[in-house]
């Protein structure tokens, strides 16, 4: 289960928002600049986060992005699912798209229960607030 750059950039951007007063919209260019993330790439990522209900997008006089929920209410699982898609926990540890129930890799039957138990639990228990504490 590989995570892409999109997930890393999403978490970086969300960490910036988590450090601000809750509900305060921040311009995308400021988020990108603070984390050293390409702005155009971050725009696509934040569209996914908006659709996933992780952030709110504001337009008009006060525009930008704000967290849709308090950091302690945003689970890492929800962030990664919004970015990576619903098949995140079904992906193989070794052969990304070549492994499936119908065509399992040599590790498939050992990895599947571990992934479903340990990785899912870790992602459900870890919140954006936890990540922000660790990053501070």
Task: Give a description of the structure.
The protein is mainly α. It contains 6 helices and 2 strands. The protein has a two-stranded antiparallel sheet. Strand 1 and strand 2 form a beta hairpin. The protein is elongated.
Number of self-contained structural domains? 1
Radius of gyration: 16 Å
CATH architecture: Orthogonal Bundle
Low-confidence stretches: none
Strand proportion: 5-15%
> In terms of quaternary structure, what is this?
single chain
Mean pLDDT: 88
CATH topology: Arc Repressor Mutant, subunit A
**Number of helical segments with 4 or more residues:** 6
Structural class: mainly alpha
For the largest beta-sheet, the strand count, sense and barrel status come to: 2 strands, antiparallel
Shape: elongated
The CATH class name reads: Mainly Alpha
N-to-C series of helices and strands = HHHEEHHH
Question: What percent of the residues sit in helical stretches (DSSP H or I)?
Answer: 40-55%
User: How are the strands ordered across the major sheet?
Assistant: 1-2
What distance lies between the first and last C-alpha atoms, to the nearest angstrom?
27 Å
What's the total number of strands? 2
CATH H level, superfamily name: Winged helix-like DNA-binding domain superfamily/Winged helix DNA-binding domain
Give a brief rundown of this model.
The chain has 136 residues and is mainly α. The chain is 51% helix and 6% strand. It is built from 6 helices and 2 strands.
């Amino acid at each position: 289960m590989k995570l892409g750059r999109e997930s890393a950039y999403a978490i970086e951007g969300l960490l910036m928002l988590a450090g601000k007063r809750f509900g305060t919209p921040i311009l995308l260019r400021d988020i990108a600049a603070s984390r050293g993330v390409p702005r155009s790439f971050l725009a696509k990522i934040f569209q996914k986060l908006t659709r996933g209900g992780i952030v709110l997008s504001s337009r008009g006089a006060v525009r930008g992005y704000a967290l849709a929920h308090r950091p302690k209410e945003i689970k890492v699982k929800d962030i990664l699912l919004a970015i990576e898609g619903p098949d995140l926990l079904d992906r193989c540890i070794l052969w990304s798209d070549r492994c499936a129930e119908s065509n399992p890799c040599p590790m498939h039957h050992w990895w599947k229960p571990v992934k479903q138990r340990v990785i899912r639990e870790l992602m459900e228990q870890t919140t954006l607030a936890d990540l922000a504490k660790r990053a501070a």
